[in-house]
Amino acid sequence: MRQTAPARCFAALLLLALLAPLPALAQDPPPLLTPEQSEAAAARYQQYCALCHGPDRAGHANDHAPSLKSASLIATGTPVVIGEAIAYGRPGTPMGAYHVEMGGPLTRQEIRELAFWLLTMAPADPIPVADRVEGDIALGAGVYAQHCASCHGAQGEGGTGTALGNATMLALTPDGFLRYAIENGREGTPMVAFKDVLSPAQIDGVTAFLRSRSAGWEVPEPKRHTPPPLDAYVINPDAAAPSFTLTDGMYVSAAELDRELKARKRMVLLDTRVTSMWERAHIEGAVPGPYYASREEVMANLPTDGTWIVAYCECPRAAAESVVRRLREAGVQNTAVLWEGIQGWVSLGYPVVQGEAAKATR
Ligand code: HEC
Ligand code: HEC
């Protein structure tokens, strides 16, 4: 089903609102940032993004995060397309929403500066892309199954490649941006150029097929959740400690965590993802302790009496491990990382509680 015109229109309006004070949208070259803005954006990149996209923006440091410096992305990704991806994330993937209104840590201005900074760091002449691409959907479905599903997932759910069936991505990305990536690949990544493999009609077809899978997108309602007060950080504060057997001295399995939670043992569950993800859904009792917070900020909220602290993140361990390593360096005892991550936890059928923002569709 194609996304309805009003829905696309609404999304477009919302994006304009999000990036409203931009003097020029679309294909104009990005205005230069002041040196101070550029420095601040570079620092924010290292704090919030480098964990997955790599300190050098080459991608694939963790969680199959894409390159943010490939010429084809930079040439076709406008400040709006890049800014929207940062603001709204890709729900259901490790890419969270960073906009404060979505429960994330960054203001609109900070996101705008990050988007401009990414574009100016890897200069490429902007290439205008079409909003819509017409093509033979049935032909495209066959192409997808044969050439794309192995990396992008049979249902476009993602794998080593990005989630091409993601409703938020499809709503916020012009067809021509996708088509250009398929035709020219993403240099320096596993995404090869398909222009020598597929005919133009096949590339149009697979682009149209992706668009046809778009199920519409409801703009998630921006609603803040207040984290629990500090004295409520410990689950079952008067109970006994859990008995965990850690694999590699670090990991606890979902089955074991579930068992100890059901036995009502005393512990802290630390959700190390970007806070907007905690707001959408989290394991019951988990409190936010995002990977980008300083060790002091995270520790300020944690008991130091040997209470077990189990950290988890999306998919499956990068953010949680970085937090637990920092806690251990500071001498915090009894820490562990959930091996399966919350995606694994959910797919094994263990429960999560939905936040208000979780009502938004994927
Ligand atoms: C926990 C890992 C993680 C972190 C941290 C993270 N990202 Fe991502 N990001 C991803 C993944 C994974 C994707 C691809 C999602 C998908 O399947 O579509 C992605 C996608 C993107 C995209 C879309 C790129 C494209 O080719 O369409 C942009 C832009 C982006 N991230 C920017 C950022 C910025 C800027 C930050 C820091 C504010 C950030 N990300 C933090 C994992 C992460
Ligand atoms: C070998 C694995 C692999 C195959 C096969 C593959 N891709 Fe990709 N694709 C990737 C990876 C990895 C990325 C992310 C690259 C990056 O780091 O920017 C990607 C990125 C993309 C993007 C850009 C998404 C975005 O948000 O920027 C599109 C569109 C895409 N692929 C479409 C396709 C289509 C259509 C096919 C089949 C014709 C295909 N890919 C085949 C691995 C693959």
Report what the structure shows.
Keywords: Electron transport, Heme, Iron, Metal-binding, Signal, Transport. This is Cytochrome c, diheme subunit of cytochrome bc complex peta. This protein is mainly alpha-helical and 362 residues long. It has two domains: 208 residues, Cytochrome Bc1 Complex, Chain D, domain 2; 130 residues, Oxidized Rhodanese, domain 1 (3-Layer(aba) Sandwich). It has 14 helices and seven strands. The protein has a five-stranded parallel sheet. A two-stranded antiparallel sheet has the order 3-7. Strand 5, helix 13 and strand 6 form a beta-alpha-beta unit. Helix 4 crosses helix 5, helix 6 crosses helix 9 and helix 8 packs across helix 9. The longest helix has 19 residues. It is globular and about 65 Å long. The chain starts with a helix and ends in an 8-residue tail after the last strand. The relative contact order is 0.12. The N terminus and C terminus are likely disordered. The structure holds heme C (2 copies).
